Amino acid sequence: MAVMSPPGVDTLDDNWSPDSQKKSALAGTAVLQKAFDLLDHIGEEPGLLDSADLARRTGMPRATLYRILAALQARGLVRTDPGRQTYSLGFHLIELAQNVWSSSDLVSVAAGELRRLRDMTGETSYLAVMHEGKMRSLGRFDGAHSHRSAAALGVTKPVHCTSQGKAMLSHLSTAQVTALLSQPLQRFTDKTITDVPQLLAQLDIIRARGFAIDDEEILEGTRCAGAAILNAAGQPIGAISVAGPTFRITPHRAEQLGYELAAATQRISQELNRTSAVTTSDISPATAITSAQAFLGASALWHAQTGAVVWIDQLGPTVHWYDATPTAITLETLDRRIDCAFLTHEGVVLFTRGGAILLRRDGTQRHLHFDAQFQARAVRTDSRGRVWVAVFNAEQNISAIGQFTQAGPGEPVWEISGEVTSLAISSDGMAFYASVPGRNTIYVMSEADGRKRVFSRLPEATGAPMGLTLDANDRLWVGAYDGWSVVRLDEDGEFEHVVPLPVPTPTSLAFGGPDLSTLYITSARSGLSTETLRNASQSGRLLALQSSVAGVAEPVASFSFPD
Length: 563
What we know:
Elements: E1 10-11, H1 30-44, E2 49-50, H2 51-58, H3 62-74, E3 78-81, E4 86-89, H4 92-97, H5 104-121, E5 124-131, E6 134-141, E7 147-148, E8 156-157, H6 163-169, H7 174-180, H8 196-209, E9 212-215, E10 222-230, E11 236-245, H9 251-276, E12 287-288, E13 297-303, E14 308-313, E15 318-322, E16 327-330, E17 338-343, E18 348-352, E19 355-359, E20 365-369, E21 376-381, E22 387-393, E23 398-405, E24 408-409, E25 414-417, E26 422-425, E27 432-436, E28 441-445, E29 452-457, E30 464-470, E31 476-481, E32 485-489, E33 495-500, E34 506-512, E35 518-523, H10 530-535, E36 543-546
Parallel strand pairs: 1-7
Antiparallel strand pairs: 2-4, 3-4, 5-6, 5-11, 6-8, 9-10, 10-11, 12-36, 13-14, 14-15, 15-16, 17-18, 18-19, 19-20, 21-22, 22-23, 23-24, 23-25, 26-27, 27-28, 28-29, 30-31, 31-32, 32-33, 34-35, 35-36
Helix pairs in contact: 5-9
């Protein structure tokens, strides 16, 4: 689609507009060509042309014009102004345009840096990707000057004589560069490098300093600096640049811009790598694996010795074992909820208000009594077999975290304002994590010095951090309550990936399965509206999803229940 320059703007890139790429009509496509011509005319002057203007410009008979316009309107490609009876491009084109390039994150993340570069320099900034051996422009922020660079979006340029192309080439392997430069290099100006060995030597310099310069190599009178955007593996996925006339972008200024561009691409790369370290293809959709529906599922635990997932319904109050022969035991005489649970070699220990219960799979029980106000809202066993609990004091609204022994809870190591609902401990025992959904906050703590700090705050739109677990890379996974998702955080507490769920209220998480690559998720249905339950019928069930990121085995507590 043709792009027209605003009145009074002298663009430097007329040789690189879509109009310069020859349009040839194929036999049998006359109607299509007419439709494309109409889109071009409407796009050039949106909201200014009526049917008479279009008929005059295209030379189409009125009947043909109306039929094609009606078809374009029906598909959302053209819309009319009812008052003025003029035409504009339809909103469906926006939807299609968003799918032009698969890496939509690249465009959105780079936009802020492109705008900053434009504002900082007054010159036009660009984003491009390599496509079929050429650079294709995806984004542009026009400079402030009337005499400026304004290459059209979607246009392709060679890689050997553009700053973006050379920046990307410098980060490719020798074999890849050789393949891309296997054909004779076209000369566009006297400064175009067409000698491959000379270009390869320049690529070494570009790689070392982090940016490339197009010194009138594709268009006389235009100088451009560009830098490549790299993914987590160090491979180029795109490039940004700033271009303008040589009288404003001097060689010295181009070099200064190069360093700014290199810094900008590092920020873009960091943001992209933060949001896409785990891709959707790495994780399968979550599905319900049990028919049992809990009121409030919690405390998912993988018991490696028996190959079973143990989980509880806090309000049931019921304990479930899920394996080849699922078992559910309801504590019918218990007059209070089960708060949380941990594994021992004897069975599963359940915390309730004022005490604990050892429950074996055969249904036998033993009870332990504490102070009536005792409420262990979260529990976790570390790699040494020690049991850690978060005891909640509702009156003071404080959670005290410390070790739990046969004598009961010990002296707290940390105190956190609010109710802690989940704990997670790194494999080396150096980092303890605690979630406080009421504050949308996750804390990280150190046993060595007793210090604690905020690790991550989830935006309210994401949901509240309810359940926690760690994978084999010590990355924290978070069940986002009321957020319909599980979130994986990086080492800085930033989002790496969000996994959508078919339920709104995930409550606890546990890695399990033979290779620990199955993530088990408990969920709740208590408190959900009828409409929500209608759209989330799997609520309350145990869910599972497969991930290429493995977890760690749940430690079994070295805890002997007293006689």
